């Protein structure tokens, strides 16, 4: 059936709008953190995979970092076990770490790789342990007590990124593979750590000198006091919003991750709603975008 004129013109306008961005970002690296609802809805999973393949096909170099907390929770529940969380961070003992590694480095990672490949991509799965990709150390969580003192909480085998071996990733990128990274790191003694996927994505983007860091979330972006999405923010804006309490609670770690990446040289970071189909393409290839952009440049120049 032939397209009607209005539909055909809309498609042509979309392609025309995307063209300058495709040209500008050709051969650039974009790091995408994939998680949340987008990983549990089959339609959104397919949408994400197609977006990643399209980015690669038009000349960008996507690198995917994924989470998998709900999948870990489901397996723990099936095994009759639970794991505590403190400020959203999973307390991870040795036996829980075995399950985390099995789920993130195994079933979830391979499922994402398979999905991208089914849509015509050439994805390859990695964990931070492969080639010592992610060097990690134990993370001690700073938590304020009721009397205002700061107490350090030991979360077990929860880590933070010390360094990223970019030669491993560049090898695959130059060979036209799409790296898909599970957020597991290893320290100098060979201990494996569970690391927050947002933090891994930010550090990978910094190390690769990426053009963009895209964080898929379960909200529409960074919200102002009236719950409206703030579409374009400078690093100074973000610092001010955190200091004044507009950005608070669970959004602080995600926004701080994006902020740190931009301050370290990533051109722009994007916090977008992963519950929307093709949100990555809409943010990268349209004039107005779809979420919150953090940069020291204006939205139009991205």
UniProtKB/TrEMBL annotation:
GO terms for cellular component: cytoplasm
Naturally occurring in which organism (per UniProt): Alkanindiges illinoisensis
Name of the featured protein: Acetylglutamate kinase
Any one Gene Ontology BP term: L-arginine biosynthetic process via ornithine
Primary location: cytoplasm
Keyword Kinase: yes
EC nos: 2.7.2.8
Keyword entries, A-Z: Amino-acid biosynthesis, Arginine biosynthesis, ATP-binding, Cytoplasm, Kinase, Nucleotide-binding, Transferase
Pfam family, one: AA_kinase
């Amino acid at each position: 059936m032939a397209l009607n004129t209005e539909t055909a013109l809309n498609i042509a306008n979309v392609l025309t709008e995307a063209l300058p961005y495709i040209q500008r970002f050709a051969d650039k690296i974009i790091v995408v953190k994939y998680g949340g609802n987008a990983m549990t809805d089959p339609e959104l999973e397919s949408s994400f995979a197609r977006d990643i393949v399209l980015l690669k096909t038009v000349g960008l170099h996507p690198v995917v970092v994924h989470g998998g907390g709900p999948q870990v929770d489901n397996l723990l529940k099936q095994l009759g076990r639970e794991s505590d969380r403190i400020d959203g961070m999973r307390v991870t003992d040795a036996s829980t770490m075995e399950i985390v590694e099995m789920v993130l480095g195994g079933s979830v990672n391979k499922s994402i790789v398979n999905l991208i490949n089914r849509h015509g991509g050439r994805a390859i799965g990695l964990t931070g342990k492969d080639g010592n990709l992610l060097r990690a150390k134990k993370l001690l969580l700073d938590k304020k007590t009721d009397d205002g003192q700061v107490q350090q909480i030991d979360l077990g085998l929860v880590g933070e990124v010390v360094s990223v071996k970019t030669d491993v990733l560049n090898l695959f990128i130059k060979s036209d593979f799409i790296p898909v990274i599970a957020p597991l790191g290893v320290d100098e003694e060979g201990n494996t750590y569970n690391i927050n996927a947002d933090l891994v994505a930010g550090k990978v983007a910094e190390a690769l000198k990426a053009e963009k860091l895209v964080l898929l979330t379960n909200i529409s972006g960074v919200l102002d006091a009236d719950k409206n999405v703030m579409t374009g923010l400078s690093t100074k804006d973000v610092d001010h919003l955190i200091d004044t309490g507009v950005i608070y609670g669970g959004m602080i770690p995600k926004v701080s991750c994006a902020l740190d990446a931009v301050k370290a040289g990533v051109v722009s970071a994007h916090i977008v709603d992963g519950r929307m189909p093709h949100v990555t393409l809409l943010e990268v290839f349209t004039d107005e975008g779809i979420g919150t952009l953090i940069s020291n440049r204006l939205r139009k120049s991205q």
